[in-house]
Amino acid sequence: MAGGKLSPRQKMINLMYLIFIAMLALNMSKEVLSAFGLMNEKLVESNESATVRNNQFFAGLEQQAQDQPEKYKPLRDQAAQISGYADVFNSYIADLKGQMTEKLDDATDYEIMDKGDFLDQQFFKGDILKPEGQEFLDKIAAFRSGVTQTLSENPGMKSISDDVQTKFSTNEVTNRDGNKVDWLHYHYKGFPLVASLTKLTQLQADVKTTESEVLSSMLAGKLKVEASLTNFEAIVVPDKTAFFSGENFTGKIILGRKDKTLRADKVVVNNRELASDAMKDGETILSFPAGAVGERDIKGQFTFKEGGEDVVIDFESSYAVVPKPNSAVIAADKMNVVYRNLPNPMTISIPGIPDNLVKASAPGLKKISGVGKYMMTPGNGKEVKITASGTLSDGFKVSSSQTFRIKDIPKPLATVRKESGFVKMPKSSLVKTTVRVELPDFLFDLKFNVKSFKVKVPGKATITVNGSKMNGQAQSAINGARVGDVIAIFDVKSSLVGVSGVQVKDASAVSIEIQ
Question: Is the dihedral of CA 79, 81, 86, 91 positive or negative?
């Protein structure tokens, strides 16, 4: 188009056509630019999470170095060196990214980041590398060589060191045409701003990943701090909660972070050092005379070696020595009466016998969660007998029973404004009031649902109302009442909320004098 003898007008047309084609080639899809921006945001978010994790890992290594400096201080020092290299390199990249976007009105408007002018001018002068471009390469090389040199002191880190060499290599790159291309030209020259920004964020992610791999390998994660012996708690676990006079106390002492391979160098209980065969499978087996009836203390110390020094863990507990019982103890949590068709909580136990070895039986009785806790739901009849039995550790059998009266729930009261019996109120309030059913001062906190009631206004026929609110007929009759008239609400029928099978008696009537 540009050759031959052309008129000035045709030359101008051809030039504009070339410019148009070039603009089409350079105008990247807005969706592609936005996709790069979204990827950059995800990487930034991931890097922030990685920073938190790395800080936690390093804090764990610091703690181990304080607890056991001979073992962990060299690793802590290596980790500090690598974190230092990472911080310097990451700060440099963050500053470079800030320069790339500082002149943009909106740093998140990725659709306008289709030009590569900034890094093209920052790193290159034509095809010649500028000092700023060489500085970028030097920063990568400083991080790469610093990390690999530090890791060379630890043979177990060779795989991480090799990965750093590969991941942060700036050697020449072979393009798809098979030609060798300078690394910086290949990755950053001529790319849209948002693409270069994303690549730099990915470089930061590689730095964070390297730091995380090093720290987690040195510490095997943050959990090593939590597993330190200083965090162990000694727990005395008796075989039962009470012992009889003349019996031996039996039980064991376990550590909160139990380890079958863990063995104390010395265990002292009540000023007496235990024999070595008392310690096995992470437990210390106890057996000694329980003593006289009453409260008894048990205390002592575990001694471990950690970092060449003794670590002492104190423990302290108590147990009760009680006389042998000859009968069971059965108590009703709601006095000595149980209510028909209601779940009545019961406590049934035999002193000296574990709860799982106590057997209790009665019609409507079942075991629930909790030591000695049962629920009794009696049906027909006037009485129910509960029997409890068990066997003591010496083979002595204990059995006892107790009879409880079965009663229906009392007749409830109808109330308006939470008042029962005789109430004074304006008729304007009565037409809006809610009729309720209550059992004041009853042992159970029962809730009632009012199904229907009747209203009698002087001089009017009795009105039946369904539900708990006055219907239109009742409101009209009440509005016709005079001051001093007494309106009766009676025959109030209700049911229990959340409890089935209980027949509720009609509630006592309530009378309202109109004011």
Answer: positive
Tokens of 478: 């009440």
Q: Give the other-Cβ count within 10 Å of 396's Cβ.
A: 14
Distance CA 430, CA 419 (A): 12
- Using alpha carbons only, how large is the chain's radius of gyration in Å? 43
For the record, the structure tokens of 24 come out as 């089409």
Give the residue from 456, 460, 444, 459 showing the smallest Cα distance to 492. Answer: 456
Three-class secondary structure of residue 255 per DSSP:
strand
CA angle 80, 84, 86 (to 5 degrees): 115
Q: In a 10 Å sphere around its CB, with 0-12 CB exposed, 13-18 middle and 19+ buried, how is residue 224 labelled? A: middle
* Strand runs labelled E in 87-218: 124-125, 128-129, 173-174, 180-181
- According to the model, what pLDDT value does residue 223 have? 42
Q: Can you give the pLDDT at residue 46?
A: 83
Q: How far is CA 455 from CA 418, 483, 484, in A?
A: 18, 17, 16
Say what the pLDDT of residue 248 is. Answer: 82
Write down how long the chain is. 515
CA torsion, ordered 190, 195, 197, 203, to nearest 10 deg: -100
pLDDT at 22 over 60: no
Q: What are the Cα distances from residue 287, in Å, to 167, 240, 242, 345?
A: 62, 13, 14, 38
Ranges of beta strands (E only) in 307-421 are 309-322, 329-332, 337-339, 344-349, 359-361, 365-367, 373-376, 383-391, 397-407, 413-416
> What is the SS3 assignment for 266?
strand
Structure tokens at 399: 């059995």
Poorest-pLDDT segment among 219-228, 450-459, 487-496: 219-228
Q: For residue 132, what are its two tokens?
A: 């700023």
Give CA–CA dist 17/128, Å, rounded. Answer: 31
The model's pTM: 0.42
Is the predicted pLDDT of residue 346 greater than 70, yes or no? yes
- Measured over the CA atoms of residue 78, residue 79, residue 80 and residue 82, the dihedral's sign is positive
Q: Both tokens of residue 94?
A: 């963050």
DSSP for residue 409:
P
Query: Exposure of 198 by Cβ count < 10 A (0-12 exposed, 13-18 middle, 19+ buried)?
Result: buried
DSSP state for residue 275 in the 8-state scheme: P
CB 334 within 8 A of CB 324: no
Q: Is the pLDDT of residue 143 over 50?
A: yes
Please give the Cα distance from 379 to 344 (Å, whole number).
Answer: 12
Instruction: Give percent above pLDDT 70 in the chain.
Output: 82
Q: Are strands 422-425 and 510-514 parallel, antiparallel or unpaired?
A: parallel
